């Protein structure tokens, strides 16, 4: 029966990844604030690592990054590696995770978004000689991080709700069978 629960969780995560990718690349393109779109996949990666640990953070990051790599047209594997590292690093702080506290996960989402923005700047712009980092920081990295953190509050609440429902389902099922 443990395999069944693992499959349900995997399918839930895959569905969540797909839904967030669709929202990030379609709906939120029309809901830009300060000319930026929130990075929902990065928030999902960061929150998954923080709440579930390094392995799940890495896996969610890898698949989130692959989704972006497939359709971005940039150097393939860049986002996958970057998001995988972010998920892994957030997983180190799993011991600080408390389901009800929203401040710490939002802090990690913000830090993760800023670090990812800096890495994308280095990979995509600085190498090509575009060195105006303060402009990029003020107009893209920080507004995106703020927008992402605000929406992450709702994402975090949704993730906690789904996780509690799945855990309750697993426990009820085990009691009936066990």
Task: Name a few traits of the molecule.
single chain, 178 residues, mainly alpha, 6 helices, 77% helix
How would you describe the overall organization of this protein?
There is one protein chain. With 178 residues, the protein is mostly helical. The chain has 6 helices and no strands. Helix 2 packs across helix 6, helix 3 packs antiparallel against helix 4 and helix 5 crosses helix 6. It starts with a helix and ends with a helix. The relative contact order is 0.14. The mean pLDDT is 88.
Question: What is the gyration radius calculated from CA atoms?
Answer: 17 Å
Give the CA-based shape: elongated
Report strand %: under 5%
| Oligomeric state of the chains in view | single chain
Order of helices and strands: HHHHHH
Number of strands: 0
Structural class by helix and strand composition: mainly alpha
Distance between the termini: 11 Å
Q: What's the helix count?
A: 6
Uncertain spans, ≥5 residues at pLDDT below 50? none
Mean pLDDT comes to 88
Main beta-sheet annotation: none
Helix content range of the residues, please? over 70%
């Amino acid at each position: 029966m443990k395999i069944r629960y693992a499959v349900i969780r995997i399918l839930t995560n895959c569905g969540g990844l797909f839904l967030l990718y669709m929202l990030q690349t379609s709906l939120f393109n029309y809901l830009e604030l300060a000319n930026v779109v929130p990075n929902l996949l990065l928030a999902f990666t960061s929150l998954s690592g923080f709440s579930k640990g390094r392995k799940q953070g890495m896996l969610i990051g890898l698949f989130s990054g692959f989704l972006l790599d497939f359709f971005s047209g940039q150097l393939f594997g860049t986002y996958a590696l970057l998001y995988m590292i972010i998920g892994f690093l957030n997983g180190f702080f799993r011991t600080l995770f408390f389901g009800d506290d929203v401040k710490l996960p939002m802090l990690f989402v913000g830090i993760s978004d800023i670090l990812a923005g800096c890495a994308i700047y280095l990979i995509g712009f600085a190498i090509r000689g575009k060195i105006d980092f303060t402009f990029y920081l003020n107009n893209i990295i920080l507004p995106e991080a703020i927008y992402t953190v605000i929406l992450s509050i709702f994402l975090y609440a949704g993730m906690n709700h789904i996780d509690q429902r799945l855990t309750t389902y697993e426990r009820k099922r085990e009691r009936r069978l066990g």
